[in-house]
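In this section we walk through a basic example: taking a raw amino acid sequence and producing a predicted 3D structure, encoded as discrete structure tokens. The instruction is simple. Fold the sequence below.
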Amino acid sequence: MHSLFNKIFSALSRELQKLSEEDYENIASGKAKLEINVINKGGRKKYEPKEESDLNHILQQLNSFKIREEGAQFLDSNCKTKKELTSLAKLIDIPVQKSDKVQLLKEKIIESTIGFRIRSAAIQNLSRKDGKSNNGINSD
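The resulting token sequence is shown next.
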């Protein structure tokens, strides 16, 4: 029995390591709750669409990443179906076509969140290096 508990706590520990620092703080403060779901391996899991609050949480996490690749990995592990990706894309006002493939949806979502911030920061840095302020007036 002791060995069984060790295996369960090891599995729980692996899942807890996937949480962000913000998740820990939200759970500790009572702003979020921790749920445990037991899913049998090998059996087909019934599809349960993500609720808007789940999608908002995913979006919040995506917006915290500074590198596209990190966001893509997070998206891969948290939005596993085309339907989830489509719902997330619509939540952030990304135009979606029925013919869009999963990979294209992921790319659109990443570019609209992380990529947008990276491009914006690059543009702001370029304008500062040109000696111009944000309003385009020379700062000399």
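Looking at the output, two observations stand out. Confidence is low (pLDDT under 50) at residues 136-140. The CA atoms of residues 76 and 106 lie 8 Å apart. In the next section we compare this with other chains.
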